[in-house]
């Protein structure tokens, strides 16, 4: 037989009067590990055997299934205060008490002693929960659990401290490995929302589902007048309002419909009294909003920048499009062709974005609803990416201006969170990025304006901008560079979660945010199920009166 490895010294000694199970050769799948029969204190499995303050090791029977990412609790009985260390599995290795190539040596039909082989589990310390007269609190661990301290998969009791009262926007349930820890919701803290949030996932991993769940929780809070921020969603795919392809939408949340305000360009929603027709007044458009839409030459850019000097703000569009307006620009030294190209683009925008009106605007109503802490959904299906960016540009400028003024006057309402889908388009840092969103990322929080950036490709988002984000919701991310970018920018250490993030299933997430002491594994609610639950919470408010489009509020 090959020599025992040094681990042998550390192993249990038999308690007198107790017999160890006889070696039986290779244990068969489904058979209980032999050592389980031994006295609890003599069992070497699930006990911390090494290694240091950065890494704990314990062994488990080869037949035992443990998973990467599972959180284990380790009871340390040495102290007066009750301390439970928590550690997350980062690796699982085959190991044994033998040296050399014992596992490939033929040894009659006995093979080898199954109780000498096992799996070694490597776990990263997360911290410890201390219970004393002062109650229960979590802190980082500055020491190592006592040798042979028992480790067990953490359950509801050990993890209940994660259900923080300040985290009030529910998005899912706590997950331990693949198992859901029933009764412990995972929620995001409202107060962190103007510190920006990022939702990252490869396509199909559940971004839209997450956003609907998040918005539904916001609607619930708004409906009960408890919300602390307004949420703006501009939806170019028409999927949030009533869902698509068998999924449900936000208006199906009848119970909390008064927590949402919808504006739409889609005539199909005309009959719904909860939906108003979207309009934007021509006078609300600035040259900067046109500038963000196209890759302009430097001459064209200069001309666009000069518009605010040459024309009055009100009515610049009409004036620019007249022969006199063009002549004014040419007199300023701009080439006829440059002026012509800008004029044609403006006409195209007016033509495509039929919601642009001479007289009415939804914008004041949108901002008032955000200040009141409601969810505002702007539904613009079939208008395309340019219209979405154009609208986002106008809206975010108006929001930022109003929030700036109200903050200066000390009279601001609730904070607000502006959602940007495919955020890499506008937060890339380089060409094509949008200065306005970058400035919201950098200084929006001063005025209570946060960004919720959703993207499949965080690697394309500027590193510095990303480091301004305090909440990361990470669903499965296949690309290594995407994961590296998040690791570089997250407030919490994500480096040991690389494999786990890679192996997340649909709807599984790792959430790193303020107030939760470590990146927490979550199972995001499936929207349709969450919807059923919320709608069951009380009597439906009904769909209200039926009629045409509401007059746009202003
Ligand atoms: N939390 C969840 N629980 C169970 N299934 C989910 C969950 N989230 C998403 N799914 C499943 O994954 C599918 C895709 O989800 P979703 O449309 O939200 O992904 P996505 O990342 O937004 O995709 P895309 O990038 O294509 O828009 C859903 O139809 C649903 O079946």
UniProtKB/TrEMBL annotation:
Residue numbers spanned by region Disordered: 1-34
Transmembrane domains' residue ranges: none
GO molecular-function term, one example from the UniProt record: 3'-5' DNA helicase activity
Gene3D superfamilies: P-loop containing nucleotide triphosphate hydrolases
Catalytic activity entry: ATP + H2O = ADP + phosphate + H(+); Couples ATP hydrolysis with the unwinding of duplex DNA by translocating in the 3'-5' direction
InterPro entries on file: HerA-like, HerA_central, P-loop_NTPase
Pfam families found in the cross-reference section: DUF87
Domain Helicase HerA central intervals: 169-399
UniProt record similarity statement: Belongs to the HerA family.
PANTHER family according to UniProt: HELICASE MJ1565-RELATED
Protein name, as recorded: Helicase HerA central domain-containing protein
Organism: Methanothrix harundinacea (strain 6Ac) (Methanosaeta harundinacea)
